[in-house]
Amino acid sequence: THQRPTVIRGPVLTFTGNPFTHGLERTAVYEPDAIVTMANGLITDFGPAQRVLPRLPANAEIKNYSKDSLISAGFIDSHVHFPQTPMIAAHGEQLLDWLTNYTYPTELKYSDKDFARSVAQVFLRENLRNGITSACVYCTVYPQSVDALFEEAERLGMRIAAGKVLMDRNAPAALLDTPKSGYDHSKALIAKWHNRGRLSYAITPRFAPTSSHEQLEAAGALCREHPDCYLQTHVSENKSEIAWVKELFPERDGYLDVYDHYALCRPRAIFGHGIHLTDDELQVMHRTGSAIAHCPTSNFFLGSGAFNIARTLREDRLVRTGIGTDLGAGTSFSMLTTLNSAYKAAQLNGYSLSARHAYYLATRGTAHAMYLEDKIGSIAPGMEGDIVVLDMKSTPLIKYRMQFVEDFEEALFVQMTLGDDRAVQATYIGGELKYSRDPAEVRAS
Ligand code: GUN
Ligand code: ZN
């Protein structure tokens, strides 16, 4: 509890519902001069400045952001690998060779807790520098890598879901657990971290090819025993991967059916990629309340394909769809850069993603995919105080281009097409300023 509420004023964009199913008119809120008040971790007031000013607490001090700013709910990343931060931008391979040649050798280093902590610090700092206030994170097979991430996230007060990778075959021996040790270590981490403050545990079988039948069964048992934990894995990212799953699980009716068979398709299950899922598989995703994490910079970088978002956001068969950076196959921590790639992935499928639909995906849409839309992803009283403040004129080119924009939608599209970390001027976690582009400001707060 603090003595003083945090009060910020400036232009606000937020969403009250899903524009893909209910239209922008009914769901997008743009308020050119708004006040957001936060106290004790939560948003306590939000509205047009003229309406909120008279009811501000007597001791309130207002932080004014200019007309060239944009205040939004913090961005949410539904799929990211913190241990891959040191190997972002590894050249030249598609998924399976990339895992063998770059990813596994890097992840071996995380038996060292001090190394894990140092990377977790850089990872969370980069999240804040990019306005990402929540994420669903893969750690490594080593439990100490999970401790390292959660300890740092707790220090910052971030809402983070994360888990120990389960993998017991088809990778270097030192990276493998067993069905029993994977289960036991996950169980202990759940007891230690799940629902501790803003932290949640994610049961994390890496993907079908690196888990035996016995391990997938154990993952299913963990899911049954902990229905409010997340389940995260990868599915149908790459054609060679899909062919490999067919060889490893000939008895199953496709890739997603492997997970469905072990009861891993469920609410709070988040499947990375899903580029090549069939209509029948998308129907299973819809029916089971599972979600897809769309990771466009990764999909382009690994040459995996162009995810067709129009197939998952169909009104008659809605599949919860979040946005993910999927770093280190993803090539940027910037959510703006990630939305730029999401636009291009949609373009390749003949679908034109509007700027406001894209911002919905990066905030409330991903919160919905994670069953968190009652806590994060929008600005309203009672929601948690996670906020990003963008600068809409962050580079000489953007500033120049902004002279010619005719409406807010266009200004927003310019940001997601040309903007990056330089556009993030401030990030608030639980109502407290945790990052500012102006170094003097963070020190003072
Ligand atoms: N599939 C299995 N593991 C991984 C990973 O670390 N990154 C990506 N992009 N796909 C995977
Ligand atoms: Zn991934």
Automatic annotation (TrEMBL):
Q: What class of enzyme is it?
A: hydrolase
Q: Which residues form the signal peptide?
A: none
Q: Which key words are in the record? A: Hydrolase, Metal-binding, Zinc
The GO cellular component terms are:
cytosol
The EC number(s) this enzyme carries:
3.5.4.3
GO molecular function terms attached to this record: guanine deaminase activity; zinc ion binding
Q: Does the keyword Endoplasmic reticulum apply?
A: no
Q: What Gene3D superfamilies does the entry give?
A: Metal-dependent hydrolases, Urease, subunit C, domain 1
Q: Which residues form a coiled coil?
A: none
Cofactor names from the entry are: Zn(2+)
Report domain Amidohydrolase-related positions: 71-433
Task: Describe the family membership recorded for this protein in Swiss-Prot or TrEMBL.
Answer: Belongs to the metallo-dependent hydrolases superfamily. ATZ/TRZ family.
Sum up the protein's function in the record's words: Catalyzes the hydrolytic deamination of guanine, producing xanthine and ammonia.
Q: What is this protein called?
A: Guanine deaminase
Lineage, highest ranks first: Bacteria, Pseudomonadati, Pseudomonadota, Alphaproteobacteria, Hyphomicrobiales
